[in-house]
C-alpha cells in the first residue's frame, strides 16, 4: 500500500507542474460555455439533416468556416468588399406570418437562391426547431404542419424527418440535378404554440430566417398579419392594433440593428446577413385580439429534463442497466450472505490474533505510519524490542540554531535479559530485518532508513494479504458504473446528436477526473492522516488542480440550454451520476469477516477511550495492572485514543508508586515522539527531479421589445443548407 501511495504521490507531483495549464483549461471552459452552446445550436440542424442526406448519393452538408458565436467584423462580411456575384447564396428571404383566430400562424417563406452546383445540386433543405425556451425557464413545444412546397411556382418533391429537436424538410429529387442559376422556393406551413401570452398583451418573438444557414443572405424581410386586419389598416397599411415592433440582427445572441421597420409595419434588413447571421422580430398586440385562442402551453422543464421520447428512449438503457447491475451486486454481496454488523461490546483485553497495526488497518482500511509505530510499540511492550530515549543537545552555530528545541532521540535494540518471550514468526523476521549483520541499534532520529522501510513493508504486507477477506472489492463495480455513465453521451452521439454527445463525453471525463482527485484527497484527509502528514501540502496542490477542472467544465455542462438537449438526456445523466454516488457512499466496504473484526476493534476502543480506573481495578490484581497498561498502550495508539489511555496510565503510576519497565512513567509525549520518529525513519527518500518545475434561447425579459431580445431568440429559427 505504501508503494502505491508513493507512486500516486510521485505522479501527482508531476501533475503539479501542469497546474497553471489546468487553471487555464478551467478558465477556458468557463469562458467557452457560450461558444459551446452556439456550436451545438449550429450543429444540431446540420446533423439532423445528415441521415436524410445519406439516403441519396451526393447529399452534402455545408460547414461554415466561421466559429459559432464569434462575431466577425462587418467589414469582412458585407457589401463593402467586392465579391463574385456568381457564388452560392440566398438572394432574398421573405416571410409572411398570418395569425389565425385560434392562435396558430400560417407562415409563407419565399427563399430565392443562386445555385452553382457546388453545394446546391438537387435542392435545399430547411430545418425548424421543435421547441423554444424563454429566459424564465419555460419550454414550449411547437408543431409544424407543412402544407405546400413550390420551386419557381411549381410543386416540388420534398420529405420530412424529425430527429432530436429538429424537423428537417428536404426539398428536391435525388435523381435530378439543377442547372446553375436562380431558383425561388416557397415553403408554406402552419405552426402552433409559438407565441407568448401576458396579462395585457400577446407577443410574437420570431426568428425569421434562423441562424443555421451556411450562406450569406442578401436581403431578408418579414410581415405580420393579424386576424381581421382589413378594418384596422391606416393609410400606410399599418395595423393600428400593433403595440410595439422590435428587430434584431446578427449572430445568435447579438442585438444588431441592421434592419428597419417600414411604414406598413413590415421589417427588412439594411445590409447583407453573413453566414449564421439572422433576422429576429418581436411584435406585441392587445390580448383581446386572440381572446378565443387557447393560451400557449408551456412544457414543464422537469418533464423535458427527465422524460424521454420514443426516439431518445435509448439514452435511458444505461440507466436501467446500471440500476439492475447494482441491485444484483447488492443481492449477491449484502442480502444473500446476510451481511450484518455485530453488536459492539466493550473488550477489556487484547484481541486474540490481532496486532495493534492490524486493528488500525481494519478500522482505517489502510496500513499507515501510526499502524507501523503501534506494531513496533507492541513489540516493545512484549519485551521483543527495547526502547531507550534521551534528550539531544541543542545545535551550536548562532542565533537560529539556539532557537532549536531539544529533541528526544529514540533507540531500538533487541531486548536482552529479563523474562523469556515467545517469538512469533513475524517477530523473528522483523528482528532479522532490523538488526542484520553487526547492527544492534537503530537511531529513530535518522530519516529514510532502509531497515525501517523494509520492516514497514513486511508488516504492511501481512495486513494487505488479508484484504480480500476483510474488504469488499468495490473498484470493479465502480468502474462499471463510470462506463455506463459515459455510455449515455456515446449513445447520444451515435443515435441522436453527434456534437452534443461528443461535447458531453469530453466534459464528463474532465469532471469525473477532477472529482476523482478531490475524492482521493478527502479520503486521505479523513481516513489516512498518517499519510497526509507525510504528504505535507500535497493535498492542497491536488485540490488546486481539481478545482478549476470540476468548476470550469461543470459550468459548461449545466449551462447548455435545456431545450436544445434531447428529451430525457440530462435526466439520464443525472440519475446515473446519483446512482454512482449512492453506490460509492452506501455500498458496504467490509465483508462479514471484516465486520466481525471491526466490531472487535470498536469494542476495544470503547474500553480504551473510557479508561475507567474502577473497571481495571476490578478486572486485574495490583501486580497485573502495570502489565495491562503496557500491553494496551499500543492498541490505544492505533485506535486514536492513546493520550486518554496514557494519561490514565501515568496517573496510576503516580498514585500507586509503581514503575513501568518499558515506558517511562507512561508519558504520552514520549509515545507521540516515538510515533513521529518511526514515521520519519521509515519514510522513503523523496525522488529528485532533474527538471525544474513551473508554477439561447431568447434574452427574454417580459417582452422582446423591452430590450431583452436578441438575434436567434424566440420561436421559429433553425436554418438549412444545400444538397
Automatic annotation (TrEMBL):
UniProt KW keywords: Membrane, Transmembrane, Transmembrane helix
Segments forming a coiled coil: none
Positions of the UniProt region annotated as Disordered: 679-723
Domain DUF2207 residues, every copy: 89-285
One Pfam family it belongs to: DUF2207
Keyword Translocase: no
Chain intervals with Low complexity compositional bias: 679-691
Classification via InterPro entries: DUF2207, YciQ-like_C
Transmembrane segments: 313-331, 477-496, 502-526, 538-561, 567-585
Gly residues composition bias: residue spans: 692-723
Domain Predicted membrane protein YciQ-like C-terminal: 348-528, 538-649
Keyword Translocase found: no
UniProt-recorded name of the protein: Putative membrane protein DUF2207
Organism: Enterobacillus tribolii
Amino acid at each position: 500500500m505504501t508503494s502505491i501511495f508513493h507512486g500516486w504521490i510521485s505522479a501527482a507531483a508531476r501533475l503539479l507542474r501542469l497546474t497553471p495549464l489546468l487553471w487555464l483549461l478551467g478558465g477556458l471552459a468557463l469562458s467557452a460555455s457560450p461558444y459551446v452552446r452556439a456550436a451545438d445550436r449550429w450543429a444540431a440542424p446540420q446533423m439532423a439533416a445528415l441521415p436524410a442526406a445519406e439516403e441519396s448519393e451526393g447529399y452534402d452538408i455545408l460547414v461554415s468556416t466561421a466559429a459559432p458565436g464569434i462575431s466577425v467584423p462587418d467589414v469582412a462580411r458585407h457589401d463593402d468588399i467586392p465579391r463574385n456575384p456568381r457564388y452560392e447564396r440566398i438572394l432574398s428571404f421573405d416571410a409572411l406570418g398570418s395569425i389565425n383566430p385560434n392562435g396558430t400562424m400560417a407562415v409563407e417563406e419565399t427563399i430565392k437562391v443562386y445555385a452553382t452546383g457546388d453545394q446546391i445540386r438537387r435542392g435545399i433543405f430547411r430545418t425548424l426547431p421543435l421547441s423554444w425556451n424563454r429566459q424564465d425557464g419555460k419550454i414550449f413545444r411547437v408543431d409544424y404542419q407543412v402544407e405546400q412546397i413550390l420551386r419557381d411556382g411549381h410543386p416540388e418533391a420534398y420529405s420530412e424527418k424529425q430527429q432530436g429537436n429538429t424537423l428537417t424538410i428536404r426539398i428536391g429529387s435525388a435523381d435530378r440535378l439543377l442547372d446553375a442559376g436562380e431558383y425561388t422556393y416557397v415553403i408554406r406551413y402552419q405552426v402552433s404554440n409559438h407565441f407568448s401570452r401576458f396579462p395585457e398583451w400577446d407577443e410574437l418573438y420570431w426568428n425569421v430566417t434562423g441562424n443555421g444557414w451556411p450562406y450569406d443572405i442578401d436581403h431578408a424581410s418579414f410581415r405580420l398579419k393579424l386576424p381581421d386586419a382589413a378594418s384596422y389598416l391606416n393609410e400606410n397599411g399599418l395595423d393600428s392594433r400593433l403595440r410595439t415592433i422590435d428587430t434584431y440582427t446578427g449572430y445568435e445572441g447579438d442585438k444588431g440593428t441592421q434592419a428597419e421597420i417600414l411604414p406598413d409595419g413590415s421589417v427588412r434588413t439594411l445590409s447583407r446577413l453573413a453566414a449564421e447571421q439572422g433576422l429576429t422580430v418581436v411584435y406585441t398586440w392587445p390580448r383581446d385580439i386572440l381572446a378565443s385562442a387557447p393560451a400557449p402551453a408551456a412544457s414543464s422543464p422537469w418533464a423535458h429534463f427527465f422524460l424521454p421520447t420514443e426516439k431518445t428512449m435509448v439514452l435511458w438503457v444505461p440507466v436501467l442497466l446500471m440500476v439492475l447491475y447494482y441491485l444484483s451486486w447488492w443481492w449477491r454481496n449484502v442480502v444473500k450472505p446476510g451481511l450484518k454488523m455485530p453488536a459492539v461490546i466493550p473488550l477489556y483485553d487484547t484481541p486474540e490474533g490481532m496486532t495493534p497495526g492490524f486493528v488500525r488497518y481494519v478500522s482505517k482500511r489502510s496500513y499507515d505510519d501510526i499502524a507501523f509505530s503501534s506494531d513496533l510499540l507492541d513489540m516493545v511492550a512484549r519485551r521483543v524490542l527495547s526502547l531507550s530515549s534521551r534528550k539531544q543537545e541543542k545545535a551550536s552555530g548562532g542565533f537560529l540554531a539556539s532557537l532549536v528545541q531539544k529533541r528526544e532521540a529514540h533507540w531500538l535494540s533487541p531486548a536482552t535479559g529479563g523474562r523469556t518471550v515467545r517469538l512469533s514468526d513475524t517477530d523473528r523476521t522483523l528482528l532479522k530485518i532490523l538488526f542484520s549483520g553487526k547492527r544492534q541499534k537503530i537511531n529513530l532520529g535518522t530519516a529514510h532508513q532502509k531497515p525501517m522501510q523494509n520492516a514497514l513493508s513486511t508488516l504492511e504486507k501481512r495486513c494487505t494479504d488479508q484484504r480480500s477477506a476483510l474488504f469488499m472489492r468495490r473498484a470493479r463495480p465502480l468502474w462499471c458504473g463510470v462506463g455506463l455513465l459515459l455510455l449515455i453521451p456515446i449513445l447520444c452521439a451515435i443515435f441522436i446528436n453527434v456534437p452534443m454527445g461528443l461535447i458531453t463525453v469530453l466534459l464528463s471525463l474532465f469532471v469525473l477526473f477532477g472529482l476523482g482527485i478531490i475524492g482521493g484527497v478527502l479520503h486521505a484527509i479523513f481516513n489516512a492522516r498518517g499519510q497526509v502528514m507525510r504528504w505535507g501540502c500535497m493535498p492542497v496542490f491536488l485540490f488546486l488542480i481539481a478545482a478549476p477542472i470540476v468548476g470550469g467544465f461543470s459550468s459548461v455542462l449545466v449551462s447548455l440550454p435545456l431545450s436544445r438537449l434531447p428529451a430525457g438526456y440530462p435526466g439520464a445523466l443525472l440519475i446515473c451520476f446519483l446512482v454512482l454516488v449512492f453506490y460509492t457512499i452506501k455500498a458496504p466496504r467490509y465483508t462479514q469477516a471484516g465486520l466481525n473484526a471491526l466490531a472487535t476493534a470498536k469494542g476495544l476502543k470503547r474500553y480504551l477511550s473510557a479508561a475507567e480506573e474502577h473497571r481495571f481495578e476490578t478486572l486485574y490484581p495490583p501486580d497485573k495492572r502495570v502489565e495491562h497498561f503496557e500491553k494496551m498502550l499500543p492498541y490505544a495508539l492505533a485506535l486514536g485514543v492513546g493520550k486518554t489511555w496514557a494519561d490514565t496510565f501515568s496517573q496510576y503510576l503516580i498514585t500507586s508508586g509503581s514503575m513501568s519497565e518499558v515506558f517511562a512513567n507512561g508519558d504520552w509525549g514520549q509515545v507521540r515522539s516515538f510515533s513521529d520518529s518511526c514515521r520519519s525513519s521509515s519514510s522513503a527518500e523523496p525522488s529528485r527531479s532533474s527538471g525544474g518545475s513551473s508554477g439561447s434561447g431568447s434574452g427574454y425579459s417580459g417582452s422582446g421589445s423591452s430590450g431583452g431580445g436578441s438575434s436567434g431568440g424566440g420561436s421559429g429559427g433553425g436554418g438549412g443548407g444545400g444538397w
